[in-house]
Amino acid sequence: MAATPWGSFKPWRSSSIVFSALALLMLSHVSEVAARGAQYSLNNYLNKHVLTGRKLMAEAAPVVDVTDYGAKADPLTDNAQAFMKAWKAACNYAGGPSKMVIPSGTYITSQTVFQGPCKAKPVKIEVHGTLQAVSDPSLYPDGDWISVEDVEDVIFKGGILDGQGQKMWPYNDCKKNPKCVHLTVSLHFSKVKNGLVDGVTSVNSMGFHTSFTFSSNITVVKLNILAPQNSPNTDGIHISTTATISISDSVIKTGDDCLGIIQGTSNVSITNVRCGPGHGISIGSLGKYSDEKDVVGVHVKNCTLTGTTNGVRIKSFPSDISIKASDIIFEDISMDNVSNPIIIDQKYGLRRSSKDSSVKISDVHFKNIRGTSASATAVSLTCSKKFPCKGIQIEDVNLSYVGTRDVPYGGSCINVQPTFAGKQNPPNACAAGSPQD
């Protein structure tokens, strides 16, 4: 085949690009199903848009193989430049969808930026092998290992991301140094509109496994995250300043929050996620930086937590930074030997501080939470005296105590008057002698 000005393309040989294109079309039309808690079904979308699918099947879609741009699956080659050259060819294809393929094998790579904007829509990164990070922090000046930036309609599918974090964790001093610099993020989507992450495995990240910032209309499915329980600051999924994101059917085993939903985030759906070990599913921490924005509309449903140090949690610093966290639902949650199963903590990080948190927490629902608690305090609601929590509901909670301490089992409520409904175990969760101002 004669060479094309776009690089070394291979003929389109399957329908995978068609389905990828349709997945991104689904994301671009996400407003049709963006009611909180709704799950975006590709099958339903395909049925609804059969004619669009037939039209796309008639179009040719180029495939860019990174090995044609110098990538080598060997223990010596840094493939960052080869990957970015291949990406540029796929990204700049103006004839419709395109795909960049990383074949089977293990590819060493330092900081790699898949930069947009792109002419191709959608553009797909399909990884069949393993990407392995270089264990040298100086090679990640932007704090990211693999990043996708300023792209509309993009898919990242498959592959193993081996962050080699075990070689870097000894240099993490964040427990002792509040001004520490966090280690490198394995996969970062920044300023992405209509993005899909599908079937990616992240192992031993240096810092966060995945991060989504300044983005919108994101779907994450079948993510598999693995790092030791004692690996520092290895949050599984970190989300901030992002609107409309759906996370489902994923397994997260790590050393920090399985999911961290931070400031500026709205319309979040988390379904069928298994978490543990780790620090649980958290909103926050909030109220640390002066430019923070509200967190609104978080729905966590049908998730399982096993052996985590926290369960479902909202946390904020005692500070003068005023934002809101509202319209939050944790429901149908299964817990197995979880410490601190239900928490609102507005003294996070500075328990002895005389300041109160200025984060206003309201309209929060804990519904149908069952299983076992490793802590004698199963429900701990520590709200701000300055801005007490409002509209807190605890409904159908059934958590049996399996801890080893011979102490009364119950809860603690400070600066909050929650409403209770349905089954309550522990009973009288606010009857531990703590003030309810």
TrEMBL record:
Signal sequence, start to end: 1-35
One GO-annotated biological process of the protein: cell wall organization
Species: Trapa natans
Major localization listed first in the record, in broad terms: secreted
PROSITE patterns for this protein: POLYGALACTURONASE
SMART domains: PbH1
Lineage: Eukaryota, Viridiplantae, Streptophyta, Embryophyta, Tracheophyta
Annotated active site: 279
GO terms of molecular function: polygalacturonase activity
Family listed: Belongs to the glycosyl hydrolase 28 family.
Keywords: Cell wall, Cell wall biogenesis/degradation, Glycosidase, Hydrolase, Secreted, Signal
Domain of life where this protein originates: Eukaryota
Protein name: Exopolygalacturonase-like
Location within or outside the cell: Secreted, Cell wall
